[in-house]
Amino acid sequence: xxLCGDLRIAATRSQGKRVIVWPLRAHVLPAEGRTQVMVWAxxxxxxxxxxxxxxxxxxxxxYRLHCEPLKQLESHGSAFHIAIYNMDKQLPDFxxxxxxMVKLIAKITTS
Length: 111
Hints:
By secondary structure, this protein is α+β, with helices and mostly antiparallel strands. It is 48% helix and 23% strand. It has four helices and four strands; from the N terminus they run H-E-E-E-H-H-E-H. It has helices at residues 6-15, 49-66, 68-75, 94-110; strands at residues 17-21, 24-31, 36-40, 79-86. The chain has a four-stranded mixed beta sheet with strand order 1-2-4-3, sandwiched between helices. Strand 1 (17-21) and strand 2 form a beta hairpin. The model has no long low-confidence stretch (mean pLDDT 94).
Protein backbone atom coordinates (compact mmCIF):
# COMPACT_ATOMS: atom_id res chain seq x y z
CA UNK A 1 0.00 0.00 0.00
CA UNK A 2 1.30 3.46 -0.85
CA LEU A 3 2.22 5.96 1.86
CA CYS A 4 0.47 9.23 1.08
CA GLY A 5 -0.60 12.37 2.84
CA ASP A 6 1.66 15.26 3.81
CA LEU A 7 1.26 14.71 7.55
CA ARG A 8 2.10 11.01 7.42
CA ILE A 9 5.08 11.57 5.12
CA ALA A 10 6.42 14.43 7.27
CA ALA A 11 6.00 12.37 10.45
CA THR A 12 7.75 9.40 8.89
CA ARG A 13 10.67 11.47 7.70
CA SER A 14 11.09 13.46 10.94
CA GLN A 15 10.23 10.90 13.64
CA GLY A 16 11.04 7.65 11.88
CA LYS A 17 14.10 5.59 12.61
CA ARG A 18 16.72 5.76 9.84
CA VAL A 19 17.95 2.50 8.36
CA ILE A 20 20.78 2.63 5.83
CA VAL A 21 21.88 -0.11 3.46
CA TRP A 22 23.93 1.42 0.67
CA PRO A 23 22.61 2.75 -1.72
CA LEU A 24 19.19 2.84 0.00
CA ARG A 25 18.06 4.77 3.05
CA ALA A 26 14.73 4.21 4.76
CA HIS A 27 12.81 6.12 7.41
CA VAL A 28 10.66 3.66 9.37
CA LEU A 29 7.86 4.63 11.72
CA PRO A 30 5.68 2.07 13.55
CA ALA A 31 2.03 2.56 12.65
CA GLU A 32 -1.40 1.04 13.02
CA GLY A 33 -3.33 -0.65 10.27
CA ARG A 34 -1.44 -1.67 7.16
CA THR A 35 2.18 -1.19 6.18
CA GLN A 36 2.52 1.74 3.79
CA VAL A 37 5.58 2.41 1.64
CA MET A 38 6.78 5.45 -0.27
CA VAL A 39 9.65 5.32 -2.76
CA TRP A 40 11.39 8.39 -4.12
CA ALA A 41 14.52 9.46 -5.95
CA UNK A 42 15.68 12.99 -5.13
CA UNK A 43 15.99 15.53 -7.92
CA UNK A 44 19.13 16.90 -6.31
CA UNK A 45 20.95 13.64 -7.10
CA UNK A 46 19.27 12.69 -10.39
CA UNK A 47 18.58 15.63 -12.65
CA UNK A 48 16.77 13.76 -15.42
CA UNK A 49 13.21 12.58 -14.85
CA UNK A 50 13.95 9.43 -16.85
CA UNK A 51 16.60 8.42 -14.30
CA UNK A 52 14.34 9.16 -11.33
CA UNK A 53 11.48 7.16 -12.87
CA UNK A 54 13.79 4.21 -13.56
CA UNK A 55 15.10 4.23 -9.98
CA UNK A 56 11.61 4.36 -8.51
CA UNK A 57 10.49 1.52 -10.76
CA UNK A 58 13.49 -0.62 -9.74
CA UNK A 59 12.96 0.05 -6.03
CA UNK A 60 9.22 -0.70 -6.22
CA UNK A 61 9.89 -3.97 -8.04
CA UNK A 62 12.56 -5.05 -5.53
CA TYR A 63 10.17 -4.24 -2.67
CA ARG A 64 7.32 -6.13 -4.34
CA LEU A 65 9.46 -9.24 -4.75
CA HIS A 66 10.78 -9.28 -1.17
CA CYS A 67 8.05 -7.75 1.03
CA GLU A 68 6.82 -11.06 2.48
CA PRO A 69 8.52 -10.64 5.92
CA LEU A 70 6.78 -7.27 6.35
CA LYS A 71 3.43 -8.82 5.40
CA GLN A 72 3.94 -11.54 7.99
CA LEU A 73 4.60 -8.90 10.66
CA GLU A 74 1.50 -7.05 9.49
CA SER A 75 -0.60 -10.16 9.99
CA HIS A 76 0.68 -10.29 13.61
CA GLY A 77 -0.36 -6.67 14.22
CA SER A 78 2.89 -4.79 13.49
CA ALA A 79 2.64 -2.24 10.69
CA PHE A 80 5.04 0.45 9.51
CA HIS A 81 5.18 3.63 7.48
CA ILE A 82 8.31 3.33 5.35
CA ALA A 83 9.92 5.97 3.13
CA ILE A 84 12.73 4.60 0.95
CA TYR A 85 15.10 6.55 -1.26
CA ASN A 86 18.31 6.14 -3.20
CA MET A 87 21.39 8.00 -1.92
CA ASP A 88 23.82 7.19 -4.73
CA LYS A 89 24.50 9.66 -7.54
CA GLN A 90 25.26 6.78 -9.90
CA LEU A 91 22.42 4.79 -11.41
CA PRO A 92 22.53 1.32 -9.81
CA ASP A 93 21.42 -1.79 -11.65
CA PHE A 94 18.59 -4.03 -10.48
CA UNK A 95 20.72 -6.72 -8.73
CA UNK A 96 22.38 -4.04 -6.58
CA UNK A 97 19.01 -2.49 -5.65
CA UNK A 98 17.56 -5.94 -4.97
CA UNK A 99 20.41 -6.97 -2.64
CA UNK A 100 20.10 -3.70 -0.74
CA MET A 101 16.31 -4.04 -0.48
CA VAL A 102 16.59 -7.58 0.95
CA LYS A 103 19.05 -6.35 3.61
CA LEU A 104 16.92 -3.29 4.31
CA ILE A 105 13.76 -5.33 4.86
CA ALA A 106 15.70 -7.74 7.08
CA LYS A 107 16.93 -4.82 9.22
CA ILE A 108 13.42 -3.38 9.47
CA THR A 109 11.86 -6.68 10.54
CA THR A 110 14.52 -7.46 13.15
CA SER A 111 14.48 -4.05 14.83
